[in-house]
């Protein structure tokens, strides 16, 4: 195939998937057209894990949690005999899984709370600079999908404001989303823990508490969107059942042109292949809903010329 | 005085107050200068009640609550004998005040919850279109301070992103802040109640619940700023003790140029004069903190040529 394409979305193969995106953008930006949307209302929301970057073999944030437990372990000798910490220190992910959400919540409490927001930002930034993915041997911030980076840029070039709406931690993402995705901190929506305002030696800080504030997943996504953005998106992009309600909120029962897209992981060779069977990124109801609601489904293997910038 | 001024902030009198604003903006925008701040970090946060529009003789949102109780009363004959509703229906604000925050919370529950977010937006919009302030006989959206509108525009013209951070209801403000202040919904931070996501006849809605989610006042303001914006403002504008922590968060213990400003209501003739004595907009600690921290204090009577656009 000749690589002569110079239009937008160069890493997308020609075909109905790419055409559906270009058609939608053309319709909402056509001045005087029947589907025209003023720029300030061109709100697009993107899931992060599995939609903008890799979420296998585990969420990147979980890799961060596990690494942090190991870093903190010397200060907590009791963890050797205390679950779920012992499971992490022994590298026994099956044992860890047996502790379920409660186990992960305990790990999040000791790794995400008990410091100021500025300190947490520094910890995340330093970890991302040195941590490497086991399979690709690269920083996680390189494991972002090149076609999706092009899509973000393409939408912004057409007057859209792009937001991330993720089940992941809002303060885990904000330190790097502007550099990697071009999405500034104020356009990131995510899960959060509570904070407490304090003055320390005439300097104000926000201290992170081991208490969940908001879970930005499933039906939480429309709620998070409403809280942070205050209007309904006209386009939403996800990859799993956790994104179902966000895609509904963006596309159903509303007038005008609307666009929903689901990234289907079908490429075991270049990335991963998973959906209904997977614990991560389970795509069960959302895939059926896509057919019903005419959401675009990306077949990664067929629709993307390359997956990563280094491909 | 000759009205020949053509620079920015035409409704501000010349003097140290105006000079402090212009100097700050000049410093952070001077390319290559020692205080230069990149545009994406030029975050400015504004309180609303008493800072951008009138908050006397009561918060506009409280006037909305009282009007809504009267509108809903025919469907609630029992309110005639039930407090705090009877106090509202009898126009007895003293009796209402005796019920304190709990009384107001009851009124908010029946006037702000029990409908979808879209329905609430419609109610607010229709109310603002018809309600009139008792003293000025004008829509509340005309009782915004002309010098502050100019300040918002001046900051934006210099690359700032302007946010509202108010103790008022976030969904009470969003329907009109873009038209009146040029601040879009996604740049409004405020107090909120919880919502529930539902599908109704294939249409998604968010249903407003009679349960407080977040109070964006005092120490809540830095928390709300962190949640919605994700970085510290370099400038903050308020008028009362409710804004103290926001001004601290924007200006103290941080490097570079920072700017804090407090609007002091000193003009009983053209607007109102109040501070330490007032229930609304109490300015007790914040006024002392302004002197200590070199925040600019606006003397409305002296510093503003006109207060409203219709002056």
UniProtKB/TrEMBL annotation, chains A, B:
It comes from the Bacteria. Pfam families: HAD. The keyword Metal-binding applies. Keywords: Hydrolase, Magnesium, Metal-binding. GO terms for molecular function: hydrolase activity; metal ion binding. This is Phosphoserine phosphatase. It comes from Bradyrhizobium huanghuaihaiense. The lineage of its organism: Bacteria, Pseudomonadati, Pseudomonadota, Alphaproteobacteria, Hyphomicrobiales.
